[in-house]
Amino acid sequence: MFLPLCHRLRFVFGACALQALDLVDQRSVTCVSSPSGRWAFQVRGGSGRLYTCFTSCHYCPCPAFAYAVLRRNESMLCKHILAAYLSQAMGVSHQESLSDQQMSLLLAGTVAATDP
Fold first, then answer.
1. 93-97 long-range contacts, CB within 8 A, separation 24+
2. Residue predicted with more confidence, 97 or 71
3. What letter would DSSP give residue 71?
4. For residue 70, which of 38, 56, 76, 82 sits 20 to 30 Å off, Cα-Cα?
5. CA distances from 15 to 20, 21, 75, 78 (A)
6. How many other β-carbons are positioned within 10 Å of the β-carbon of residue 97?
7. pLDDT tens per residue across span 69-85
8. C-beta separation of 19 from 47 below 8 A
9. How far is residue 109 from each of residues 3, 15, 26, measured CA to CA in Å?
10. pTM exceeds 0.90
11. Among positive and negative, which fits the CA dihedral 56, 62, 65, 71?
């Protein structure tokens, strides 16, 4: 018997799976890209904070990633990275084009592309 997708995701990724699905449902994920081909995901967390996630190297600057993934090795990823993967797979992430200069600033952590 097959379990529904949300149950399978929760089995593999734990509690962050439902939180990630909630972020996807709220359309909190934006894929930003530049003419040079660089890209990243920006995910607005439940607190309203914007996190720039890099699925290519599997990194998020959120405290949960630093603690549960890097420090404690209790999880494979945080809800922001999982939301980026899910929204990409489902084709529901917002798309935003940036200039190469804007992308360089974003990657350096000096500006957020979708902040008001």
1. 93/29, 93/30, 93/31, 93/41, 94/27, 94/29, 94/30, 94/31, 95/30, 95/31, 95/33, 96/30, 96/31, 96/32, 96/33, 97/32, 97/33, 97/34, 97/35
2. 97
3. I
4. 38
5. 9, 11, 10, 10
6. 13
7. 888 888 888 999 999 99
8. no
9. 40, 28, 24
10. no
11. positive
